[in-house]
Amino acid sequence: MLGAISYNPIVRIHIGPLAVSPHGIFIAVGFMVGAWFMLPESRKRGMSDDVIYPLFTLAAIGSLVGARVAYVINHIGDYASDPLDILLVWEGGISLLGGFFGAIAFAIPRMRREKLSFWKVMDAAAPGMALGVVVGRTGDIIIADHLGKSTSFFLGYRCPPLEVETGSPCGPTELVSRTVGAVVHQTALYDQILALVLLLILVRLRRKVHFDGFLILVFGLGYGMNRVIEDFLREDTRRLGLTASQWTAITTICLSLYVLAVLRRTPRWGRWDESPAAAAAAAATPSEDRGEAETRSDQAILAEEDHGPEP
To answer: Tens digits of per-residue pLDDT, 22-50?
Structure first.
């Protein structure tokens, strides 16, 4: 091994009587930066800030709920003796993928009520989601969280002395939660690097016209692959050989691949900005690009205005 990353984590920052974790700070900053990065794209897609800001509020609430619920479900045995501990979110225990799905689930009713296209909103959000991961993982690195299995990789993390607190166990043995000097996978760093690569890909792809939903599906495919690979390096609860995040990621990968490689067009569900006739026209030909689909949609709308809906 050529070397390893070595530093003393900062698990908490004490401000008077308060103790704040860099983990929570960077999650919040990552959400805000991702939201800011989304706004120019949502404007280009015809969605005003007044319509998008309420979605941010719902997504923030949903991400907290989803992140906690997903973690608790995967570690339900830890709360069997005292179920009220489920509410102690500040003590740690959240799932990034659960946060994503919670944010989307809470925002969907508002999208539908405002007659926004789910796919256009999510395409605008996709690069910001990747950026949010890049920023948010900084907090995990600062507190040395998500430490994995032993390794000789040069980006591994060297476990500090026993008196130094870490965000997660570091090279544990059967007797102690720390093997001083052991080098383990720093999966938060790997996730940050891969998310940065995914961000660059998404920023490049959004320069060209694709069907609605293309960018969020690329994000689902790319980040899903990241998590499947990374979780093999983690120490976590497994079912049938895989973590809950891996099962979730594999499902997301399969759905994304189906739409990208087989359907090759915007799914009919979620097109709440279109009339039924326009949606049917846009979905008529699997291989048509978005420009052609929009032309067909406009023609269908004009036909409805001239002749009225079919009886």
So the answer is: 998 999 999 999 999 999 999 999 999 99
d(CA 191, CA 227): 8
pLDDT confidence of residue 280: 60
d(CA 120, CA 201): 18
DSSP tag of 86: G
pLDDT digits (tens, 9 = 90+) for 157-191: 999 998 899 988 898 877 678 888 899 999 999 99
Distance of alpha carbon 77 from alpha carbon 82, whole angstroms = 10
CA pair distance 59, 65, nearest whole angstrom: 10
Tokens 């009587």 -> residue: 17
Of 274, 307, 308, the C-alpha closest to 293 is: 274
Assigned token pair, 15: 């401000």
Closest Cα to residue 42, out of 121, 126, 127? 121
Phi, psi dihedrals of residue 293, rounded to the nearest 5° = -65, -40
pTM of the model: 0.84
For residue 258, the SS3 value is helix
Q: What angle do CA 245, 250, 254 make, to 5 degrees?
A: 150
Q: 123 CB contacts (<8 Å, ≥6 apart)?
A: 41, 45, 206, 212, 213, 214, 215, 216
**84-97 burial code (b ≥16 CB/10 A, e <16):** eeeeeeeeebbbbb
Sketch the domain layout of the chain as residue ranges. 13-267, 274-311
Distances (CA, A) of 125 to 60, 73, 228: 13, 27, 22
Q: What pLDDT digit, counting tens, does each position of 72-108 carry?
A: 888 777 777 777 777 777 667 788 899 999 999 999 9
SS3 (DSSP) at 206: coil
Asked whether the beta carbons of 279 and 119 are under 8 A apart, the reply is no
CA angle 113, 115, 116 (to 5 degrees): 115
For residues 126 and 165, what is the distance between their CA atoms, to the nearest angstrom? Answer: 35
